[in-house]
Amino acid sequence: MAALLSLVWLVIPLPLAVTGLAAGFAWSMATHALLDRRWPVRWLLQHTGSPAFADLRAAGLNGLYLADQALHQTALLVSALMITRL
User: Fold this and answer.
1) Domain limits of the chain?
2) How far apart are CA 83 and CA 25, in angstroms?
3) 41-68, pLDDT tens digit by residue?
4) Which of 49, 79, 81, 84 is least buried, going by the fewest C-beta atoms within 10 A?
């Protein structure tokens, strides 16, 4: 993340602060560590009215994987906002 952020910063001089960088990287590490355990994703799907989607494995789709990737993308978005706004 730091390498890609550095490359982006060379092209787009984003306002960066140490607190934002620390918060964004910490958020990213914490959420990825949690989501990669898979059970939180399954728990979330089962407790938000989507237990069938958690068990979906048909027609080339895997519900747990798709939800995991969507949550990772959301976590990265929040991390990017923290990095550039704090």
Assistant:
1) 16-85
2) 8
3) 999 999 999 999 888 888 888 999 999 9
4) 49
